[in-house]
Amino acid sequence: MNVSEWCFSASVLLCAMVLPAQEQPEGLPRRDQIVFAEQKLPALAWVKNLKPAPFPVYGIYTWMGEFNQLKQEIKEVGYKTLRVGGKYSDENMKALFDTGLNFTLLAPDGGRRDAFETDDAYIEASVQALSGFLDRFGEEGSFYRAFPAYRGRYIPYLQLRNEPNFHYMYKAGTEAEREALYARLAPQLIEVIRAKSPRTKIPPHQNHQFFRRRCRGGGYAFCEKCTGER
């Protein structure tokens, strides 16, 4: 590495150490200028004949409505993993189990923080929503008694929130307020999952900077809980 390269690298490192975290945008810039047009998916035969990439592919992120419409095509393409959000009914859960895919579900959330008067009320509603969901679909849930063919199955992964550092959890909140709220919320949700579906794993949040800042504030026990490490 020559002197100019070293200076550039040092400057980048210094900026990374001293610059504050950037606030997430509250909406899509220039949304009014976007033109929407129908774009058809390529033929399934064409997709199946593509040469696989030389690196592993995580899978596909979809919603239950799309999954129900395209579940056979998803299976034929050869995806191994699936991340799904939306409403989870008995029929939806049967369909997910029947694919044989290793899937991640977005945990029911009880609504955004903005709809509640206090953080405590939001957290309580979130815990109740997840608890009710797992009473049905957790490892000892009533779903498996109603449908004995699925006994022994369980939800492989539950993601606590989708991008809690963005506006999906708390639209009116600042970055710091979202972090503080998630620091209180996540451990309580994880305790519910461990009690009602102990084999289900909790993947870490996508924004690693978000987690590093919370871990520094909450200590190792918080890190262990909120990254889902077991």
Low-confidence stretches: 5-22, 217-230
Specify the overall morphology. Answer: globular
Give the overall pLDDT as a whole number. Answer: 79
Structural class: alpha/beta
H/E series: HHEHEHEHHEHH
Number of DSSP helices? 8
What percentage of residues falls in helices of 4 or more residues?
A: 40-55%
Gyration radius (Cα, Å) is 21 Å
Outline the biggest β-sheet. Answer: 4 strands, parallel
State which percent range the strand residues make up: 5-15%
> Cα distance, first to last residue?
41 Å
The beta-strand count equals 4
Strand order of the largest sheet: 1-2-3-4
Would you kindly provide a written description of the structure presented here, covering whatever features stand out?
With 230 residues, the protein is an alpha/beta fold. The chain is built from eight helices and four strands, in the order ααβαβαβααβαα. The protein has a domain at 107-226. It is globular.
List the helices and strands and how they pair.
Elements: H1 3-18, H2 44-48, E1 60-63, H3 64-77, E2 81-85, H4 90-99, E3 102-106, H5 119-137, H6 142-146, E4 157-159, H7 175-196, H8 208-226
Parallel strand pairs: 1-2, 2-3, 3-4
Helix pairs in contact: 5-7, 7-8
